[in-house]
Protein backbone atom coordinates (compact mmCIF):
# COMPACT_ATOMS: atom_id res chain seq x y z
CA UNK A 1 0.00 0.00 0.00
CA UNK A 2 1.41 3.39 -0.92
CA UNK A 3 1.82 6.11 1.66
CA UNK A 4 -0.86 8.14 -0.03
CA UNK A 5 -3.36 5.32 0.23
CA UNK A 6 -2.56 4.73 3.87
CA UNK A 7 -3.50 8.35 4.58
CA UNK A 8 -6.95 7.93 3.12
CA UNK A 9 -10.17 6.70 4.58
CA UNK A 10 -11.96 4.30 2.31
CA UNK A 11 -15.64 3.88 3.02
CA UNK A 12 -17.39 1.21 1.05
CA UNK A 13 -21.11 1.67 0.83
CA UNK A 14 -23.70 -0.46 -0.83
CA UNK A 15 -21.69 -3.57 -1.64
CA UNK A 16 -23.84 -6.58 -0.94
CA UNK A 17 -21.04 -9.08 -1.35
CA UNK A 18 -17.66 -7.39 -1.03
CA UNK A 19 -15.70 -10.65 -1.48
CA UNK A 20 -16.19 -10.59 -5.28
CA UNK A 21 -15.10 -7.05 -6.03
CA UNK A 22 -13.32 -6.59 -9.38
CA UNK A 23 -10.06 -4.70 -8.86
CA UNK A 24 -10.89 -1.78 -11.19
CA UNK A 25 -11.97 1.67 -10.14
CA UNK A 26 -14.90 2.87 -12.24
CA UNK A 27 -16.31 6.35 -12.70
CA UNK A 28 -19.65 7.69 -13.87
CA UNK A 29 -18.66 7.37 -17.54
CA UNK A 30 -17.34 3.81 -17.25
CA UNK A 31 -19.26 1.25 -19.27
CA UNK A 32 -21.24 -1.51 -17.60
CA UNK A 33 -22.30 -4.56 -19.61
CA UNK A 34 -25.14 -5.94 -17.57
CA UNK A 35 -28.88 -6.50 -17.52
CA UNK A 36 -31.19 -8.08 -14.98
CA UNK A 37 -34.76 -9.12 -15.84
CA UNK A 38 -37.16 -11.97 -15.09
CA UNK A 39 -35.82 -13.87 -18.15
CA UNK A 40 -32.31 -14.47 -16.73
CA UNK A 41 -31.70 -18.05 -15.57
CA UNK A 42 -30.48 -16.83 -12.18
CA UNK A 43 -33.53 -14.64 -11.48
CA UNK A 44 -33.61 -13.81 -7.72
CA UNK A 45 -30.50 -15.92 -7.04
CA UNK A 46 -28.90 -12.82 -5.51
CA UNK A 47 -31.73 -12.25 -3.00
CA UNK A 48 -30.33 -14.60 -0.38
CA UNK A 49 -27.23 -14.96 1.74
CA UNK A 50 -26.74 -11.21 1.75
CA UNK A 51 -26.00 -8.40 4.13
CA UNK A 52 -28.31 -5.46 3.49
CA UNK A 53 -27.80 -2.43 5.68
CA UNK A 54 -30.86 -0.22 5.49
CA UNK A 55 -30.47 3.53 5.18
CA UNK A 56 -32.97 5.86 6.90
CA UNK A 57 -34.73 6.50 3.58
CA UNK A 58 -34.90 2.74 2.85
CA UNK A 59 -36.60 2.19 6.20
CA UNK A 60 -39.06 4.99 5.60
CA UNK A 61 -39.98 3.86 2.10
CA UNK A 62 -40.34 0.17 2.91
CA UNK A 63 -42.34 0.59 6.10
CA UNK A 64 -44.71 3.03 4.43
CA UNK A 65 -45.32 0.48 1.67
CA UNK A 66 -45.99 -2.18 4.29
CA UNK A 67 -48.09 0.33 6.22
CA UNK A 68 -46.21 -0.32 9.44
CA UNK A 69 -45.15 2.04 12.22
CA UNK A 70 -41.37 2.34 12.54
CA UNK A 71 -41.02 0.30 15.74
CA UNK A 72 -43.02 -2.63 14.37
CA UNK A 73 -41.08 -2.66 11.11
CA UNK A 74 -37.76 -2.55 12.96
CA UNK A 75 -38.77 -5.34 15.29
CA UNK A 76 -40.11 -7.66 12.61
CA UNK A 77 -37.66 -7.07 9.78
CA UNK A 78 -34.33 -5.86 11.14
CA UNK A 79 -31.48 -6.51 13.55
CA UNK A 80 -29.36 -3.72 15.08
CA UNK A 81 -25.73 -3.72 13.94
CA UNK A 82 -22.83 -1.29 13.93
CA UNK A 83 -22.32 0.43 10.59
CA UNK A 84 -19.12 -0.72 8.87
CA UNK A 85 -15.96 0.44 10.68
CA UNK A 86 -17.82 2.78 13.02
CA UNK A 87 -19.41 2.73 16.46
CA UNK A 88 -22.61 4.11 14.96
CA UNK A 89 -25.64 1.85 15.29
CA UNK A 90 -27.83 1.01 12.31
CA UNK A 91 -29.97 -1.91 11.15
CA UNK A 92 -29.54 -4.91 8.87
CA UNK A 93 -32.43 -6.55 7.02
CA UNK A 94 -33.33 -9.93 8.54
CA UNK A 95 -33.29 -13.00 6.29
CA UNK A 96 -35.66 -15.97 6.63
CA UNK A 97 -34.65 -19.45 7.93
CA UNK A 98 -33.31 -20.33 4.49
CA UNK A 99 -31.17 -17.21 4.34
CA UNK A 100 -33.48 -15.52 1.78
CA UNK A 101 -34.73 -11.96 1.80
CA UNK A 102 -38.22 -11.74 3.35
CA UNK A 103 -39.45 -9.80 0.29
CA UNK A 104 -38.45 -12.22 -2.46
CA UNK A 105 -40.86 -14.56 -4.22
CA UNK A 106 -40.50 -16.64 -7.38
CA UNK A 107 -41.97 -13.72 -9.31
CA UNK A 108 -39.29 -11.40 -8.00
CA UNK A 109 -39.05 -8.61 -5.45
CA UNK A 110 -42.40 -7.76 -3.84
CA UNK A 111 -41.17 -4.28 -2.85
CA UNK A 112 -39.31 -3.60 -6.09
CA UNK A 113 -40.25 0.09 -6.36
CA UNK A 114 -39.14 0.64 -2.76
CA UNK A 115 -36.24 -1.83 -2.70
CA UNK A 116 -33.24 -0.85 -0.55
CA UNK A 117 -30.44 1.30 -1.93
CA UNK A 118 -28.00 -1.64 -1.76
CA UNK A 119 -30.26 -3.70 -4.04
CA UNK A 120 -30.47 -0.83 -6.52
CA UNK A 121 -26.71 -0.61 -6.74
CA UNK A 122 -26.02 -4.33 -7.27
CA UNK A 123 -23.79 -5.41 -9.07
CA UNK A 124 -22.17 -1.99 -8.78
CA UNK A 125 -20.64 -0.86 -5.52
CA UNK A 126 -19.72 2.62 -4.42
CA UNK A 127 -16.83 3.79 -2.27
CA UNK A 128 -15.57 7.08 -1.01
CA UNK A 129 -12.04 8.23 -0.47
CA UNK A 130 -11.56 10.95 2.06
CA UNK A 131 -8.16 12.25 3.08
CA UNK A 132 -7.55 11.56 6.76
CA UNK A 133 -8.45 14.56 9.01
CA UNK A 134 -4.83 15.47 9.76
CA UNK A 135 -4.10 15.71 6.01
CA UNK A 136 -7.08 17.65 4.80
CA UNK A 137 -9.82 19.98 5.97
CA UNK A 138 -12.61 17.76 7.16
CA UNK A 139 -15.08 19.84 5.16
CA UNK A 140 -13.39 18.75 1.90
CA UNK A 141 -15.75 16.68 -0.27
CA UNK A 142 -15.05 12.97 -0.40
CA UNK A 143 -13.98 11.50 -3.74
CA UNK A 144 -16.54 9.04 -5.03
CA UNK A 145 -15.79 6.00 -7.16
CA UNK A 146 -17.44 2.76 -8.24
CA UNK A 147 -16.50 -0.87 -8.66
CA UNK A 148 -18.08 -4.01 -10.03
CA UNK A 149 -19.12 -7.04 -7.98
CA UNK A 150 -18.95 -10.15 -10.19
CA UNK A 151 -20.33 -13.33 -8.72
CA UNK A 152 -20.42 -16.64 -10.61
CA UNK A 153 -24.14 -17.16 -10.12
CA UNK A 154 -25.02 -13.76 -11.61
CA UNK A 155 -25.72 -14.23 -15.34
CA UNK A 156 -26.67 -10.60 -15.88
CA UNK A 157 -23.02 -9.98 -16.88
CA UNK A 158 -23.57 -12.20 -19.95
CA UNK A 159 -26.36 -9.99 -21.31
CA UNK A 160 -25.65 -7.61 -24.19
CA UNK A 161 -26.99 -4.37 -22.75
CA UNK A 162 -24.30 -1.73 -22.17
CA UNK A 163 -24.81 1.42 -20.11
CA UNK A 164 -22.59 3.91 -18.41
CA UNK A 165 -22.61 3.93 -14.60
CA UNK A 166 -24.33 7.31 -14.85
CA UNK A 167 -27.17 5.75 -16.92
CA UNK A 168 -27.30 2.76 -14.57
CA UNK A 169 -27.81 5.09 -11.61
CA UNK A 170 -30.77 6.81 -13.28
CA UNK A 171 -32.23 3.51 -14.44
CA UNK A 172 -32.16 2.05 -10.94
CA UNK A 173 -33.40 5.15 -9.10
CA UNK A 174 -30.08 5.44 -7.27
CA UNK A 175 -29.79 9.21 -7.70
CA UNK A 176 -32.98 9.78 -5.72
CA UNK A 177 -31.96 7.35 -2.94
CA UNK A 178 -28.51 8.86 -2.62
CA UNK A 179 -29.88 12.39 -2.62
CA UNK A 180 -32.23 11.49 0.24
CA UNK A 181 -29.53 9.75 2.26
CA UNK A 182 -26.71 12.14 1.40
CA UNK A 183 -26.51 14.00 4.72
CA UNK A 184 -26.75 10.75 6.67
CA UNK A 185 -23.99 9.14 4.61
CA UNK A 186 -21.83 12.22 5.22
CA UNK A 187 -22.30 11.74 8.97
CA UNK A 188 -21.29 8.09 8.77
CA UNK A 189 -18.21 8.92 6.71
CA UNK A 190 -17.26 11.77 8.99
CA UNK A 191 -17.44 9.40 11.95
CA UNK A 192 -15.32 6.88 10.05
CA UNK A 193 -12.70 9.43 9.19
CA UNK A 194 -12.50 10.66 12.80
CA UNK A 195 -11.85 7.10 13.90
CA UNK A 196 -12.72 5.71 17.28
CA UNK A 197 -10.27 7.94 19.13
CA UNK A 198 -13.00 10.60 19.35
CA UNK A 199 -15.44 9.16 21.86
CA UNK A 200 -19.16 9.32 21.33
CA UNK A 201 -21.35 9.04 24.42
CA UNK A 202 -23.86 6.21 24.74
CA UNK A 203 -26.58 8.86 24.78
CA UNK A 204 -25.35 10.28 21.44
CA UNK A 205 -25.32 6.79 19.92
CA UNK A 206 -28.88 6.16 21.12
CA UNK A 207 -30.08 9.42 19.61
CA UNK A 208 -28.25 8.64 16.33
CA UNK A 209 -29.98 5.25 16.21
CA UNK A 210 -33.41 6.66 17.01
CA UNK A 211 -33.14 9.56 14.56
CA UNK A 212 -31.91 7.33 11.72
CA UNK A 213 -34.25 4.40 12.18
CA UNK A 214 -37.41 5.43 14.05
CA UNK A 215 -38.87 8.71 12.84
CA UNK A 216 -42.02 8.19 14.93
CA UNK A 217 -39.95 8.38 18.12
CA UNK A 218 -37.83 11.21 16.73
CA UNK A 219 -41.01 13.19 16.00
CA UNK A 220 -42.16 12.66 19.62
CA UNK A 221 -38.80 13.99 20.77
CA UNK A 222 -38.98 17.06 18.50
CA UNK A 223 -42.43 17.94 19.83
CA UNK A 224 -41.49 17.39 23.46
CA UNK A 225 -41.51 20.37 25.80
CA UNK A 226 -37.80 20.18 26.45
CA UNK A 227 -36.91 20.16 22.73
CA UNK A 228 -39.21 23.04 21.84
CA UNK A 229 -37.91 25.07 24.76
CA UNK A 230 -34.34 24.49 23.54
CA UNK A 231 -34.71 25.11 19.78
CA UNK A 232 -36.48 27.82 17.82
CA UNK A 233 -38.87 26.16 15.37
CA UNK A 234 -41.29 28.51 13.65
CA UNK A 235 -44.89 27.46 13.00
CA UNK A 236 -44.34 26.63 9.33
CA UNK A 237 -41.38 24.37 10.18
CA UNK A 238 -43.33 22.68 12.96
CA UNK A 239 -46.21 21.99 10.61
CA UNK A 240 -43.88 20.46 8.01
CA UNK A 241 -42.19 18.29 10.62
CA UNK A 242 -45.55 17.09 11.90
CA UNK A 243 -46.90 16.16 8.46
CA UNK A 244 -43.99 15.30 6.23
CA UNK A 245 -41.81 12.28 7.05
CA UNK A 246 -39.15 13.19 4.48
CA UNK A 247 -38.84 16.72 5.92
CA UNK A 248 -38.58 15.20 9.38
CA UNK A 249 -35.90 12.75 8.21
CA UNK A 250 -33.79 15.54 6.72
CA UNK A 251 -34.27 17.62 9.85
CA UNK A 252 -33.06 14.58 11.84
CA UNK A 253 -29.85 14.51 9.77
CA UNK A 254 -29.24 18.23 10.44
CA UNK A 255 -29.96 17.76 14.12
CA UNK A 256 -27.45 14.89 14.29
CA UNK A 257 -24.83 16.92 12.39
CA UNK A 258 -25.26 19.77 14.88
CA UNK A 259 -25.23 17.67 18.04
CA UNK A 260 -22.55 15.16 17.00
CA UNK A 261 -20.18 17.34 15.01
CA UNK A 262 -21.17 20.92 15.86
CA UNK A 263 -22.24 21.61 12.25
CA UNK A 264 -24.74 24.42 12.72
CA UNK A 265 -27.59 25.03 10.33
CA UNK A 266 -29.79 28.12 10.11
CA UNK A 267 -32.93 25.95 10.37
CA UNK A 268 -31.85 24.70 13.79
CA UNK A 269 -31.38 27.64 16.14
CA UNK A 270 -30.84 27.12 19.85
CA UNK A 271 -33.02 29.55 21.85
CA UNK A 272 -31.10 32.55 23.26
CA UNK A 273 -32.54 32.14 26.74
CA UNK A 274 -31.65 28.44 26.67
CA UNK A 275 -28.09 29.29 25.67
CA UNK A 276 -27.87 31.80 28.52
CA UNK A 277 -29.30 29.24 30.94
CA UNK A 278 -26.75 26.71 29.76
CA UNK A 279 -23.88 29.17 30.17
CA UNK A 280 -25.15 30.06 33.67
CA UNK A 281 -25.45 26.39 34.53
CA UNK A 282 -21.91 25.71 33.28
CA UNK A 283 -20.60 28.69 35.28
CA UNK A 284 -22.39 27.46 38.39
CA UNK A 285 -21.08 23.92 37.93
CA UNK A 286 -17.54 25.23 37.43
CA UNK A 287 -17.77 27.41 40.59
CA UNK A 288 -19.11 24.44 42.58
CA UNK A 289 -16.33 22.20 41.28
CA UNK A 290 -13.73 24.82 42.23
CA UNK A 291 -15.20 25.15 45.69
CA UNK A 292 -15.22 21.37 46.15
CA UNK A 293 -11.58 21.20 45.03
CA UNK A 294 -10.66 23.97 47.49
CA UNK A 295 -12.41 22.16 50.36
CA UNK A 296 -10.76 18.87 49.47
CA UNK A 297 -7.37 20.59 49.40
CA UNK A 298 -7.98 22.14 52.83
CA UNK A 299 -9.02 18.75 54.23
CA UNK A 300 -5.89 17.16 52.82
CA UNK A 301 -3.74 19.88 54.38
CA UNK A 302 -5.46 19.34 57.72
CA UNK A 303 -4.95 15.54 57.50
CA UNK A 304 -1.32 16.16 56.71
CA UNK A 305 -0.90 18.48 59.71
CA UNK A 306 -2.64 15.95 62.00
CA UNK A 307 -0.38 13.19 60.76
CA UNK A 308 2.69 15.34 61.30
CA UNK A 309 1.59 16.14 64.85
CA UNK A 310 0.95 12.42 65.59
CA UNK A 311 4.41 11.43 64.33
CA UNK A 312 6.11 14.16 66.38
CA UNK A 313 4.14 13.23 69.50
CA UNK A 314 5.09 9.58 69.02
CA UNK A 315 8.74 10.54 68.57
CA UNK A 316 8.82 12.66 71.70
CA UNK A 317 7.13 9.88 73.72
CA UNK A 318 9.73 7.35 72.49
CA UNK A 319 12.55 9.83 73.34
CA UNK A 320 11.16 10.39 76.87
CA UNK A 321 11.10 6.60 77.54
CA UNK A 322 14.77 6.22 76.52
S1 LIG B 1 -35.38 -6.29 -1.24
FE1 LIG B 1 -36.00 -7.12 -3.19
S2 LIG B 1 -34.22 -6.90 -4.50
FE2 LIG B 1 -33.52 -6.65 -2.40
S3 LIG B 1 -32.85 -8.67 -1.76
FE3 LIG B 1 -34.98 -8.45 -1.16
S4 LIG B 1 -36.16 -9.29 -2.83
FE4 LIG B 1 -34.11 -8.94 -3.60
S1 LIG C 1 -28.84 -11.35 -13.05
FE1 LIG C 1 -27.64 -11.04 -11.21
S2 LIG C 1 -28.78 -9.38 -10.23
FE2 LIG C 1 -30.18 -10.27 -11.73
S3 LIG C 1 -31.28 -11.86 -10.65
FE3 LIG C 1 -29.52 -12.86 -11.54
S4 LIG C 1 -28.05 -12.82 -9.88
FE4 LIG C 1 -29.56 -11.29 -9.37
Ligand inventory: iron/sulfur cluster
User: Could you spell the SSE succession in H and E letters?
Assistant: HEEEHHEEEEHEEEHHHHHEHHEH
Give the averaged pLDDT, no decimals: 86
Count up the helices.
Answer: 12
Helix vs. strand class: alpha+beta
Quaternary class: single chain
Largest sheet at a glance? 3 strands, antiparallel
Strand order of the largest sheet: 1-8-9
Low-confidence stretches: 1-11
Coarse shape: elongated
> Strand fraction band?
5-15%
Helix content: 40-55%
End-to-end separation: 78 Å
Q: How many strands in all?
A: 12
Task: Report the radius of gyration as a whole number of Å.
Answer: 28 Å
Description:
This protein is α+β, with helices and mostly antiparallel strands and 322 residues long. Helices cover 49% and strands 14% of the residues. The chain has a three-stranded antiparallel sheet with strand order 1-8-9. Strands 3-5-4 form a three-stranded antiparallel sheet. Strands 2-10 form a two-stranded antiparallel sheet. It binds iron/sulfur cluster (2 copies). The site of one iron/sulfur cluster has 12 residues, from loops.
Structure described in brief:
With 322 residues, the chain is an alpha+beta fold.
Label this structure with key terms:
alpha+beta; 3 domains; three-stranded antiparallel sheet
Amino acid sequence: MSNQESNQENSTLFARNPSNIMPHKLNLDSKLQFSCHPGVSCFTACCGNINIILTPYDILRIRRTLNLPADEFLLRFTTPVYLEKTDLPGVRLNLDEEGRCPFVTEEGCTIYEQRPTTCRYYPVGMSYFRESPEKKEDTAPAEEFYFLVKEDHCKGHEEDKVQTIREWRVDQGIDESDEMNKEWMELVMRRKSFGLQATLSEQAKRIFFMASTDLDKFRDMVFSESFLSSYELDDATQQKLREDDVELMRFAFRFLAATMFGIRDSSLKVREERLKEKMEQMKKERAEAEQRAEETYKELLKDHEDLKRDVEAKKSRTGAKQ
